[in-house]
From TrEMBL:
One of its GO terms (molecular function) is oxidoreductase activity. This is Protein disulfide oxidoreductase. It comes from Serratia oryzae. Pfam families: Redoxin. Residues 28-166 form the Thioredoxin domain. It comes from the Bacteria.
Length: 166
């Protein structure tokens, strides 16, 4: 019994260390919203003009910065597409992934349907100071309320959007 208690305590300490390290990494890597970002008009691959303020006015918006060359994005992008297909308020930004045709071909090859703003030269991502892909930013009513980087599950994204709406 003493051995089991010791193992449980060690596991709890390890979980706390991982949790603190995770929050610290998110804080250090957090993107910085550019001034007046919510007034900026963006254009999706299908030519639709969008505004982050408009998209986040009635429900929280998940902005997903990703790249076709990003290894971790191969695991997260299908979850983002699933979230979008299930009615989640999602806008994605393809960072330095080629011209519009190349991004469309990538999405078609992976059988993904997403609203995508193509950040061909990385200018939009630079304005947000995105240094890591993937990066997830939750915007509610024109304000950044959460962000995280790296792998995130479908349920993690859903929970973040739900939490931002509460």
């Amino acid at each position: 019994m003493a051995r089991l208690t010791r193992w449980a305590r060690e596991l709890l300490v390890l979980a706390l260390i991982v949790l603190v390290a995770s929050f610290a990494m998110d804080w250090l890597r957090a993107p910085q919203a550019p001034p007046a970002f919510n007034n900026q008009m963006l254009e999706t691959l299908d030519g639709e003009p969008v505004s982050l303020a408009q998209l986040s006015a009635s429900e929280p918006l998940l902005v997903y910065f990703w790249a076709s060359w990003c290894g971790v994005c191969r695991f997260t992008t299908p979850s983002v597409a699933r979230l979008a297909a299930n009615g989640g308020n999602v806008l994605t930004v393809a960072l330095r992934s080629g011209d519009d045709r190349q991004v469309e071909q990538f999405l078609a090859h992976k059988q993904l349907q997403l609203p995508v703003v193509n950040d061909r030269r990385g200018e939009l991502s630079a304005q947000w100071q995105v240094g890591v892909t993937p990066t997830f930013v939750v915007i509610s009513q024109g304000r950044v309320v959460q962000s995280t980087t790296g792998w995130t599950s479908y349920w993690g994204m859903k929970l973040r959007l739900w939490w931002a709406a509460v």
